[in-house]
Amino acid sequence: MTQPPARTLSALGLYRRMAGASIVAQLRYPGTFAIQAIGNFVTTLLGFFGIWSLFRRFGSIAGWDIGTVAVLYGLVNVAFAVAETLGRGFEVFGGEYVRTGSFDRLLLRPRSTLLLLLGHELRLRPIGRFLQGAFVLIAGLWLAPHVQWSAVLVLPLAIAGGAAMFLGVLIGQAALCFITVEGLEVVNVLTYGGVEAGQYPLTMFGRWLRRFITFVLPLAAVCYYPALFSLNHPDPLGVPTWIGALSPLAGFAFLGVMVLIWHRAVAGYVSSGS
Amino acid sequence: MTLRPYLTAFGLQWKIGLRYRIAVIAGLVAQMWFGAVTLMAYASVYHAAPDVQAPLSLRQAMTYTWIQQSLFTLLPLGCLPAIGDAAKTGAIVYDLLRPVDMWNWWLSATLARLLGNAVPRAILLACVAGPLAMLVGLGAWSLAPPADMAAAALSLLSITLGALLSATIVMWWNILTARTLSPLGSYAVGTPLAVLLSGMLLPLPLYPDWIRPFLLAQPFAGITDIPIRIYLGTPIPGGAVTGLGLQLFWLATLTLLGRLWMRQTVNRLEVQGA
Fold first, then answer.
1. Chain A residues closer than 8 Å to B27 by CB
2. For residue B100, what are the contacts with CB-CB under 8 A and spacing of at least 6?
3. From the CA of B204, how many Å to the nearest CA of chain A?
4. Where are the transmembrane segments (chain B) (predicted)?
């Protein structure tokens, strides 16, 4: 007679163990980790140096003060760093799971595939981007003239919504790998390109791009509008400011849609064999 | 001295670069996106501050951005992937045993890899950003033609030197890789340096005035910044001769020092594996 397992881990407990193992593995090579984290910090900080130089030369970016732009820049970078930390399994999904056929093994386990892929790696390297984003964000709040107290609530919500949105992009990218097998770098347009677009005020862009990053990818909802709300800055396009307190929820909605697509895609999965 | 082995090394890497057609298309989409975001940002910055005397006009800044985007894969972002693999597996000994000059052998492979990646992308993006953009009525956003015939001829010469210079800098990353036995360090150091110092992040003429002479004099400016300045006809102190002279100076200096460093590294190289 087979014994039922004495104890199964809850989803959270299981994730904690996988994440712990991943962290221990990354810290095995402390020198490599330090170089990569510092490289990440410097690379992303240089990005802000470019924007700062534009300010030095032109006085403002199209009428926006440096505090506002720093808040936008910090928000989008912190949110993306969180998504990058959690979603590494989806980023490498095509090459490491679909092409090799090792996704079959995940399907045999009695756990959600999403949970197992989240546990693929809790990546520590984006801590460089996270720290410098947080640093620029705080500097921006310090420089901006009309910071609202409600920013204490709205900015964390915006970061969570933004992280959910970028995680949604990574999950969508992984779902696409069922068709393309190898990962497609075009999706980088939505991740790294999203970070690039999110750090400028929405009004700088042409109409097609504004619509795309508002309604297709809710980038403006998790970054631009919450920043306006927190800084009590009226929107030049006339959208009421209070929208920014609620709009980060669109990031979670986007993640929800991508999870639905993921389940659809898994249901139609045909192994490449091994 | 026979040239054939070096030509073979060149031909092999050139073909590898040309094989990934989908990657070329994916790269084109990504470069168009980053180009569009950057251009819209510059356009609104310039329009908001009409009386600021910038060293580049808006049209020149846009052309600068397009050329820079199209030559992204020409930048020395890290070591040659084949050498990174060879360093990790220990296959680097085979290179040591070949009866060829190792600097030239690696340099021809590196140059071919850079050109094989960059040339198709550059031609494609130049067609899209130049004539095609004109045809669909985006003339104001398109790639401007060169300043005059002399500028066109000199910039062609200059970009050839730029490609050689970039390959020489990659040689330094290759030696670093052979020394540390891992390609990661070269990417961690190379990517931020190349992106900032070549003018990819922000055109070098737009940085604050006090830092501009230093930016022009450092070796990375010779890869794309000097050729683009000659193409645009923007003044370089001392004219195009200074630009070409700087390129030749860095080419000679980095080759001499690099060869010394390589000899020293090879003499005490410890190889992994059996």
1. 185
2. B5, B6
3. 10
4. 20-43, 63-83, 122-144, 150-175, 187-207, 244-262
Predicted TM-score (pTM) of the model is: 0.84
When pLDDT is averaged across residues A14-36 and rounded to a whole number, the result is 84
Within chain B, which residues score under 70 in pLDDT?
A: 1, 17-20, 270-274
CB contact under 8 A, A193 and B30: yes
Q: How do residues B196-252 score in pLDDT, each as one tens digit? A: 899 888 899 988 888 889 999 999 999 999 999 999 988 788 788 899 999 999 999
Asked if residue A217 lies in contact with residue A169, where contact means CB atoms within 8 angstroms, the answer is: yes
Give the angle subtended at the CA of A182 by the CAs of A178 and A186, to the nearest 5°.
100
Q: Which residues of A are less than 8 Å from B36 in CB distance?
A: 209
- Both tokens assigned to A146: 């009309």
Report the number of distinct structural domains present in chain B: 1
Which residues face A61 on adjacent strands? A64
Please check whether residue A255 is in contact with residue A164, taking contact to mean a CB–CB distance below 8 angstroms: yes
Domains of chain A: which residue ranges? Answer: 29-267
Q: Which domain holds residue B54?
A: 4-267
Cα–Cα distance measured from residue B267 to residue B262, given in angstroms and rounded to the nearest whole number: 8
- The answer as to whether B272 is a domain residue is no
Is residue A64 classed as helix, strand or coil in its secondary structure? strand
Decide if B273 is inside a domain.
no
Tell me how far apart the alpha carbons of residues A228 and A147 are, in angstroms, rounded to a whole number: 10
